[in-house]
């Protein structure tokens, strides 16, 4: 059930809130927070359907990229994950309806997240104490992708949506549809989507060895894709709860761009069961549970011939129990059980067959006060990581490691006046190493290295703090946040002087590391009459250092400054903005520096009512000046520089019909 929260975010999420919130100014809807308080100190933000309609991309990372503090791993246009405050991979927890997505996107940069915004209702970002509910791997944050495939509220009659869109830059042709029906006792849901793109247009001519493609063209070679998926779900409701189930599939065939003839064929099927019981007698007021099973696999093809097959099968069970207020405290207790079985079959398998099991208990508490709010959270985990080797390859170590991570966080928001507030957050987080960090031993072409794990690694430990100042007066608002994270055992790939099969050897090692940065954003009303004109502005910078060597850490986004003029009049709205990215010269040995660039974007939308149907027409022009640019946070900039610049100019047109 969606619950309204007033905007008083702590940590850097303040900046994200104003950029992503789709509710009235100063308010944001958050379903990921388990409490329904009218005020929260929990850092939270949400991107609703209207923003996804206008700015949604084919990957999760690119959809969120550009928000203050959020960058993208950008392995071409078909694979990317979010980077939050310089942290990526398994330090960013990607969820689907509060449950683990159980894919292998964190294993390699060329592995896509099996989620598409065409079938998404909203995307939420959580940090701080609330993020601990979802595991130690949420040290960077939680990205929760939410759909309505399991209806959680009764419906009235029949409703639906249909969407069509096309783009010039990648010859995109996409369609999506959703249909729901029900009453106060039952509801059913069905949806489907299809997205097809060609090679992406860029401002420079690039070579291409892919059969059937021109040898030289202003396109990113091997960047075409085809994705499709759908789901059915149903729920039954009673006076104090609901029970529902769903099954969904996602398939994608896409080029990896780093190699001209390598493509990936991905397929995942997910089954989910969810229910909630409210108004219980005794100490607990309500209990919510969700059980999911995921069957994921993808095959890497070289010039059409099947190569390495990656597979992951897993289950996730999560139970939350909300207790009644005790001495003013409101909170939830919960437990989570997650298991996964991974395999990689083929000569280029760089990680062994493995089994990972984890059990966790967590608590999240909030105390509303007259001066603001205090919140705290803790999570205890038991994690077992087992390497099973590989029946076809004898290079992998076989063994088992057990870990007991513990994480703790606390935060507060202090009201200084009706318009000003201060926020702060402190967290101690521990993360168990992943299977590939412990047992990898093989060629990883996405990183262009021979990766070697270390079975002696301990838990990754970090201490984080941030401080924020927020101001809001009518439609005007501003937020500035400073943050710092200190890692006692930051697990990363470190260069060595060794060579294996013509590839440089890189070892997973734990080092001391530090992340520091500032985020800021705001909105200023410039004009208000029959129409409105606002100026949205944003800025962020991150500095990450390997304390052991004094070198900067790789793939850190540079300083970014941006501004957008937002015009609205009746059913019309229009935006024009620019984002400047500084040159990133602060890179470790072996990495490639990137130059400064500016991206200019513009959009316009019109909302049209036709009886019981509402049409939302939209047009968006990306990279208006056709600027040549390379992403500092993409590993391709180092391993395959020049093969995959950022997309050039592209016009996207679309319409969504709601009834």
What does it look like?
It is a single chain. The protein has 659 residues and is mostly beta strands. 4% of the residues lie in helices and 58% in strands. Strand 28 and strand 29 (476-500) form a beta hairpin. The longest helix is centred in the first third of the chain and has 8 residues, at 13-20. The radius of gyration is 24 Å and the shape is globular. The two termini are 22 Å apart. Residues 1-23 form the signal peptide. This is TonB-dependent receptor. Belongs to the TonB-dependent receptor family. InterPro entries: Beta-barrel_TonB, Beta-barrel_TonB_sf, Plug_dom, Plug_dom_sf, TonB-dep_rcpt-like.
Beta-strand fraction estimate: over 45%
- Number of helical stretches of at least 4 residues: 5
Q: Can you tell me the CATH topology?
A: Maltoporin, Chain A
Count of DSSP strands: 36
In the CATH hierarchy, the architecture is: Beta Barrel
> How big is the Rg?
24 Å
Q: In the residues, how many domains can be counted?
A: 1
Output the CATH class name.
Mainly Beta
Give the overall shape: globular
What would you give as the CATH superfamily? TonB-dependent receptor, beta-barrel domain
Structural class, by secondary structure, is mainly beta
Mean pLDDT: 90
Q: Biggest β-sheet: count, sense, barrel?
A: 22 strands, antiparallel, barrel
Distance between the termini: 22 Å
Q: Can you tell me the residue ranges where pLDDT is under 50 for at least 5 consecutive residues?
A: 1-29
Protein name: TonB-dependent receptor
Main location: membrane
InterPro entries: Beta-barrel_TonB (IPR000531), Beta-barrel_TonB_sf (IPR036942), Plug_dom (IPR012910), Plug_dom_sf (IPR037066), TonB-dep_rcpt-like (IPR039426)
Signal peptide: 1-23
